[in-house]
Design goal:
single chain, 7-stranded mixed beta sheet, alpha+beta, about 150 residues, 5 helices, about 30% helix
Length: about 150
């Protein structure tokens, strides 16, 4: 995980509408950046729905929500449309940005180890510094946990 107070790594990726998005686009706003391994899977859908359902509260706190995975732009678009997500979903198929945020590591499933995207998130402040790191995020409570940290 990245250390609190360090500069959030810059990136340039495509969102679900194939628009180019940079971290620097959000200077002056907080950013909740959450990582997930695959669009439309149960845990990530629950987490995204929680963020969707609390979207107005995040907006009230000047906080942009950005999801990121290695999925294609098309998969991100399908995920966002199907779930009614009002926030950005970024596509990082090369996993370069995901790696720069330390959001990839060894995982275990059915006794086999493999490299995968970790269930983590970062709250980035208005000057693009890491304000808070969320390790082992709970999909059901993540939105409420972040809103509490935002003073909601």
């Amino acid at each position: 995980m990245l250390k609190i107070g360090t500069k959030a790594p810059e990136f340039e990726l495509s969102d679900q509408d194939n628009n180019t998005v940079n971290m620097s686009d959000f200077k002056g706003q907080k950013v909740l950046l959450w990582f997930y391994p695959k669009a439309s899977t149960p845990g990530w859908t629950i987490q995204g729905q929680g963020l969707r359902d609390e979207f107005k509260k995040f907006k009230d706190k000047n906080t942009v929500i950005i999801g990121m995975s290695a999925d294609s732009v098309k998969a991100q678009k399908n995920f966002a449309t199907k779930q009614g997500f009002q926030f950005l979903l970024l596509s990082d198929p090369a996993k370069e940005t995901i790696r720069s945020y330390d959001a990839i590591g060894m995982k275990k499933m059915y006794g086999k180890e493999y490299e995968g995207i970790l269930r983590i998130a970062y709250l980035v402040d208005e000057q693009s510094n890491i304000e808070k790191a969320y390790e082992k995020v709970s999909p059901k409570t993540h939105a409420c946990e972040v809103l509490k940290d935002l003073g909601y």
